[in-house]
Description:
The structure is a single chain. The chain is α/β, with parallel strands linked by helices. Strands 2-1-7-3-6-5-4 form a 7-stranded mixed β-sheet, with helices on both faces. It has a 4-stranded mixed β-sheet with strand order 17-16-15-18, with helices on one face. Mean pLDDT is 86; it is low at 1-22, 91-100, 102-121 and 377-381. It starts with 19 loop residues before the first helix and ends with a strand. It is built from 32 helices and 19 strands. The chain is globular and about 105 Å long.
Amino acid sequence: MCANKKYKIIEPKSGRDIIMGDQYVLLISTMGAFIPPLDLAQLRLDYLAHIERTYHALDFKGIPQLRGMANELALEEVYVPLMARPEMPAGDTWERRHAGRVFDPAMLPEAVLLSQGAGEISAPVQIETALREKKRIVVLGDPGSGKSTMLKYLALRLAKDENAPLPILLPLNAYAKALSKKDINLQSYLGEYFAGRAEGLAALGPLFKEALTSGKAIFLLDGLDEVQINRAALAQKVEDFTHEVIAFGNRVAVTSRIVGYRDAPLAPKDWVLYTLMDFTPDAIELFAKKWCLAFEISTLGNTPEAAASAETERISLLNAIQANPGVAQLASNPLLLTILALIKRQGVELPKSRIKLYDRYLETLIEAWNRASALDRSAGRESLDYETTLEVLGPLALRLRKENPTSGLVGAHQLQDWLTEHFTGEQWGLKPGPARIKAREFLDSVRRFSNLLLERGEGQFGFIHLTFEEALAAFGLVAAGQVDRQKSLAYIQEYIADPGWRETILLSVGVIGLINRQPRVAGEVVRAMLSMNCAGENTGKNLLMAGACLEDVGPTGLGQVAAHEIQAALLTASRNRSLTPALQHAAGFSLARTGWVPADLDDWVNIPAGEFLYGDEKRKETIKTPFAIQKFPVTNLQFRRFVHDKGYGRPEFWSEDGWAWRMGTYDTRADDDTKKWLAQRPPEKRGEPFFWHDEKWNNPLAPLVGISWFEAEAYAGWLSQQLGKTVRLPAEQEWERAARGAAGREFAWGDKFDRNKLNAAPFWKQDDNAGYAFDLPEAGTTVVGQFAEGSTPDGICDLSGNVWEWTTSWYEKAQVHRVVRGGSWNFAHYDARCASRNWGDPVNFLNNVGFRLVSPGL
Length: 858
């Protein structure tokens, strides 16, 4: 809040609604129902029943986490519709093709920039829309983008609708194997393929021919890129077949990976390309809702208990995703989101143990890769296990981080040279000839089976996502120091100030402390960071990296001694006024995120009854009864207890007006200006503080902001119950008496202003006359007690600056606005005077207003 005016809060528009049903109905209404002659009617029913049996459940093939799962998840219950752009990306264009990278446009080639601009022209569509409007389409997507699942879902939906055309789903690699034995056209092979797929199912050739010639079939051909030998010949077979069936009015959809499709594309003049997009935040939320409900029903049945448990799991999953940008980026890929949901079901706490999460991700993807390679009879070579594959990919990712961190791409020849060099090294010790053969086999396996390291352009390889490159590089960094730890420390010293290496360094500490279970070694590495030389504009970055490591792996991963040493260094830096304000602020926030809490956080300070000098005119006022006031403004950590105790849903803690605000009935009697303000936070967003999930404002030890006066009042009601005594917001006279003492000092600490004793605009701008700090993006709240030297003689902290504080007093006789006191992080030193008073509408919820409470004194 800027307490003297209302500011409009603008929220991003929500993504477009995803409504599968409408597009599906339009699709079947366009083509019409397949109604075979009487002699084929039963065959049609038998075939459709086979489709339902085959595709009714979600396929977890290749995901080790569900090998022992007893219950199935219905595909229809968990499927989230996919969106696609009607075009093919030219190389690594589009933000979604950057695999988690965020580039400075100045770093990208002009050709990429031009293709990015062009790509923005085409709006995403649903595949069902594409099939309705186009007779033949190619659906392209990266590994894990949901191509095969989409076709299975479409086949299932069509099979369950008597008014729909006939769905015919075929994996093209099966057809390719048949072609390697004999020349057979695709139409004839369809009957052969299904002949061995279901016991008791009669020959389907006549049924398929009837559907084809009547123009009532949708052919779903999956995995063109999976065909490794004679793909061009197979593509021609598909072309010939499609030319024939399209003439009758049927539809054909073919799926392929993006890069694999380039090797043998279908005729551009005949086919329309659609490239699948990553999940949007809306799609992720829809997945979480569907997934959690389906999972709970599979174990508890369709019961109220299952619904309640699913809602708890949904919130927990979304919180885990939203709590860390790296995890959120992974969640945009349907396969990776599914694995994330599975891992979380296994009890892994996310994202606090990120390296454990990534380790399980890597194990899943590498095991699936190696299993596919081992089952491939044409490979004729040994399969690498998880640890061995990791030992190869770690140094490879580290080298990629070092030599090409921007695009994360390496050419095939250079990649083979790197692998050859690795296989001749100490770990493998092969001679150059066998090492090159090993490298070639490894690279061939990548092309054929990997969902982790893949072709991302012609002759260019990269990891499916930046996060996996960083995690694997962390394993490589640790391996580099396996014999001599100084080699690992040399990497850290060289790159500790480089933001592009932050994740790799953080995760490397997690590898040592949590994966390798060597917390003392990890602690020694992080303690070494504290002594590293970071000068000039990089001053303090080693300290912040050490703090981030403690945040990431906790004392369990570093050991208590190292943890205490890091916390002490962060505390000292947060109060070192010779450092930049931004560094002091960052050190304090990091300290709080490590779990450090001041021992006196919940303390109260007694204020005696008696006279004191009040207001700018310093007139005498009297405090008739003693009271106690909280030493600090209420922090996010303290308010969390109220939220977790479901305080927003318990009317006994709220006043009548407060509960009316909470439920939205207050809005109807508000004036027009207030209604506009209230509309920005409708009742469904009044169940937690407005900035509750914004990391700039939700630090555990920062003052709570983004709350109305009513929320502060409700917290007081809840805390009264907890303490067994009445606590409330202070009257402004009580607040001022606590801030300026009986003698009427100018600021909480005394009469002379000192910008280093408070969090206000002069501190951020290092200028005593600075009026406001709205224009500084780094400015904001600081952790409570960070300006201990600005406390009152009684030891009350943050009464001058940091946040304005709600009081019970009305600002004017009309009783419209409440008084706020104390100034804030973005206001001038004049506003931080003890006598300064300002106003706030009780419904306001801005980022510079908090509160503290008072209770009866001793």
